[in-house]
Amino acid sequence: MGRKLLTEHINVEGIETLEVYRKHGGYRSVEKAIKTMTPDEVVEEVKKSGLRGRGGAGFPTGMKWSFLAKPEGVPRYLVCNADESEPGTFKDRQLMSKLPHLLIEGMITSSYALGANTSYIYIRGELLYVLRILEKAIAEAYAAGYLGKNILGSGYDLDLYVHPGGGAYICGEETALLESLEGKRGNPRNKPPFPAVQGLYARPTVVNNVESIAAVPVIVNEGGEEYAKIGVGRSTGTKLISACGHLNKPGIYEIELGLPVEEFIYSDEYCGGIWKGRELKAVVAGGSSVPILPKELILKTAAGENRLMTYESLSDGGFVTGTMLGSGGFIAMDETTCIVRNTWNFSRFYHHESCGQCSPCREGTGWLEKVLHRLEYGHGRMEDIDLLVSVAKQIEGNTICPLGEAAAWPVAAAVRHFREEFEWHVTNAKDAVQPGAVFPGKAVLV
Amino acid sequence: MAKITFDGIEVEVPDGTTILNAARQIGGSIVPPAMCYYTPLKGSGGKCRACLVRVAAGSAKDPRPMPKLVASCVTPVQDGMIVENTTSEQVMDVRKGIVEMLLINHPLDCPVCDQAGECDLQNFAYEHGVSTTRYVEERRTFEKIDIGPLIQLHMTRCILCYRCVYTADQLTDKRVHGVLGRGDAAEIGTYIENIIDNDFSGNVIDVCPVGALTDKTFRFKQRVWFTKPVNAHRDCENEKCGGRVVLWYKGKDVLRVTARKDEYGEVKEWICNTCRFDKKETADWTIEGPAHIDRSSVISANHYELPVVNPQVIADLPESSIRDLEQNPPMKLGN
Amino acid sequence: MEPTTAPAKPQFSEAAKAEIARICKQYPEERRKSALLPVLHIAQAEFGGWVSPEVQDLVAEVLGLAPIEVYEVSTFYTMFNLKPVGKHVLEICRTGPCMLRGSDELTAHLERITGAKVGGAPSEDGLFTLKEVECLAACGFAPIVQVREKYYEQLDTQEAVDAMLLELRNQVHRPALPWEENGLPNALANN
């Protein structure tokens, strides 16, 4: 049984109230940080913890914090990225709706570390009901003196607000998020300048994912070194995995990084195996944008090692035989799944969500979707398969923001590992378009 | 100051200069193309990706290459930076891909487009593209939108460079058009029926790199390469307008009036709508002489730089051009 | 349906005005535009589930923006309905994880049962608009439908879908928002 650092009390009745949350040790990190530590000491603990951004990129949080520019007399901001929209990922919604005070506590402690006096939680607009929960909890925190002027008599002031989006996946990209917070279209900005120098209102800003912020209290309470003892190598601590798709027990699981993938899928403590007694066909392990892997490669690396739930193990083999931990959106597909349909579905998502600002993404995502749609509906040509790879390559790396890669990788990986299934959609188009048609062949492993 | 090496050529520029502007100081064929960046418009650039270049060394302090190609129009130079444009096969290859992307939903209606001959997209495709397309899907189209009596908006041709939006934002007090929708359904529009009515609104025509915004008073009048550009000025009553323009003649008739542009197609001075749309008589203007069009365009092929002493000479221009052409063969395209 | 049903000069209720004033205080004085998305959400809830051009102009006026600044934003974000909608907008998630657990079938079923078409006009009784949306971040509880601020999860059985529709059919007022005493009549959209 792994340790639960974030979700230990998630099912306690009334944990969404400040009173119950405090009974279970809540807000200790605020007291500890503000009363006994300097802001830099808090940053140092987060650095020592090895915590990596939990939104998907996996960039070390402490290092990100240390990049924040601190010009004299200029306000700086902490903005929490709660725009959870990566298909397959639903951990932040669960965390915020059930443990609102954990995020608020993390925001206060982190804001103190960064010297921010105003902080925002940018939550996707679809989660307005969670915004209400957070606002209620924030009001409690103000009343208890954890927010507002002169917190705990320390002289430190902090105002915390929740800001809703309006329905746009792209706002999960940090500069698009800041544009959106400024009341504009969610167009990602050209970088440099980076948010650490010119972020919200052109002032220095740190943007962190909900889960990253929620990990800060435990790091401050137990110390960065203690936190870093959990996990394997540079993958320290615990991670929330959103398990979904064809699993017996989909849901949110807090795992210690290093858990074998096979155990995660099949053990009763976690997902309990594949539904309906079927075989696993493929997994998208880190949210829809990471490369899909066939069963054989998600359970074991190309070298035959057990695949572990860590940043390093999942990316072992690069994009040829590996994938990424990403946001931890773990989508399992059983043997009856049509990979072409699934790839088309993801492509449609990225086409729909492209902001339209830069040409490779605006035009390329639509192109990919249209070709995949033809393949899925029986109008594919053999040359379309290489065309997909080529168009994906033309998008990748050439766009303003990472949505280009997010749109390109799933297509490239699906063709790499399931080329025969794509070909079958061309050669056996009539069979392939039947609802529930199942490709009879095998995946390509290398 | 920062010293950088661009395609093997060293140039020293003030700190904060973008890679593109450093390259423009060198000039010539190594300058990356720019479809959205526009020096006079603050905030423009970074969108079309036509100007992507490879940074082989980030700076003298940190000589590592940058992991991805960067948009040269918005990336500032660092001292010791080494940049590859025409010398990088990867850059040339990616640029070809950008042309393809920009063209897949373009109507390719150049034969009936007023912009043909002075179209940045046409030139970009000619210089960097391939002559076939791999795109077999249906092309995106938009209804033509009426935005007033003077300007035609033909959204299907638009490449979403945002220049016209920045122009309206920065030149006029009340912008009524903008970018609506998103993704490949994004469009320039006014949302509710509205007309763009402002003393300087006509400048959106000049900044548009393609035929999305064209001059209704010039619509279908003439192919631009059959018209003769002549510099002229007048004492404009609008204090924000310098009244320095280019008149485009066909025979004795002024078919259209535009602002003057530099070799990169950037407007040197904005002009007002009165100068642009209402002053189409030679008598309205003091003629300075033939305008030199220093861009890779079929117009520059006409190459007829004769001094014009008085307006009467204008009428004879076609003939004098022929004379001139015999003496000086036309410049090569793209030179 | 053509966008003709909105009142010519819409006005926010007093409760909504107070809420807007509270929201505006969250941002620096000179950055009032920041309040645009939250105020658009309030407007959509106040004026029958969609934002007509007149409503958007009102939002522009309240925040001191040019109308085009509001149009640019309302057309970018998918939550804002730009055409009249039925009393309940059923937003059905269609993305991968929901598709794997039957969202295509759910959509077909809802079209059959309500008579409305995805992306089309509301059902003839004016009760339901069907709208397909992308990932709602509830993949572990797929398939999902969102109606206003509520998520209906695990809609993979006839009973679950029926229960949702019954609840919606019986709703006379839309649920009250935190700053309101009562929700507005559901009928607003069609009056």
What does this structure look like?
The complex is a heterotrimer of chains A (446), B (335) and C (191). Chain A contains 19 helices and eleven strands. Chain A is an alpha/beta fold. Chain A folds into three domains: 18-229, Rossmann fold; 241-334, Ubiquitin-like (UB roll); 339-432, NADH-ubiquinone oxidoreductase 51kDa subunit, iron-sulphur binding domain (de novo design (two linked rop proteins)), CATH 1.20.1440.230. The model of chain A has no long low-confidence stretch (mean pLDDT 96). In chain A, strands 8-7-11-9-10 form a five-stranded mixed beta sheet. In chain A, strands 3-2-1-4 form a four-stranded parallel beta sheet, with helices on both faces. In chain A, strands 5-6 form a two-stranded antiparallel ribbon. Chain B has three domains: 2-91, Roll (Ubiquitin-like (UB roll)), CATH 3.10.20; 141-217, Alpha-Beta Plaits, CATH 3.30.70; 222-327, no CATH class. Chain B has helices spanning 19-26, 89-104, 120-128, 163-171, 203-207, 273-278, 312-315, 317-327, and strands spanning 2-6, 9-13, 52-57, 70-71, 82-84, 145-146, 151-153, 178-180, 187-189, 213-215, 228-233, 244-250, 253-259, 286-290. Chain B has a five-stranded mixed beta sheet, sandwiched between helices. A four-stranded antiparallel beta sheet of chain B has the order 13-12-11-14. In chain B, strands 6-7-10 form a three-stranded antiparallel beta sheet. Chain B is globular, with a radius of gyration of 21 Å. Chain C is built from seven helices and four strands. Chain C has helices spanning 14-24, 36-46, 53-63, 67-74, 96-100, 103-114, 158-169, and strands spanning 88-93, 128-133, 145-147, 150-152. Chain C has two domains: 14-74; 88-169, 3-Layer(aba) Sandwich (Glutaredoxin). Chain C has a four-stranded mixed beta sheet with strand order 2-1-3-4, with helices on one face. Chains in contact: A-B, A-C, B-C.
